[in-house]
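Entry 14. Structure prediction run on the chain below.
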Amino acid sequence: MPIHTDILEYNASQAPGDRRICDALAKAIHRALPGAENKVWHRHPVWFLDGNPIVGYSRLKDCVRLLFWSGQSFDEPGLEPEGSFKAAEARYTSAAEISPTDLRRWLKKSVEIQWDYKNIVKRKGKLIRLRRSG
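Output returned:
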């Protein structure tokens, strides 16, 4: 599945420095999650596995934020808790700050470690850990 046109347009709409960050993140995510559905969701690029949001990024006032929905469970340096659920983030002000090694490791964990955000409303805000088969 190619990178969705809406994501490419989102990246192209950013200032040059932020566009470099967004393009680098999109390429790395796409390589690591080649079969994942990807789209602009709630106005930001997001990748999904079986309808469950896994990773995305967004332009904030002073940086580009990379967000892993289940990232607090990765137990990884470089990812900071975000919000009241299981999400964790890394923030970048330059594409040079992105560690390809860390990003590959985090993306691998994003497939292995998932909380069920897809059904969070149905479960009235309760998250359950998904178990990977295979």
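Strands lie at 37-41, 44-49, 52-59, 64-68, 80-81, 88-92, 114-115, 129-130.
Filed with the rest of this week's runs.
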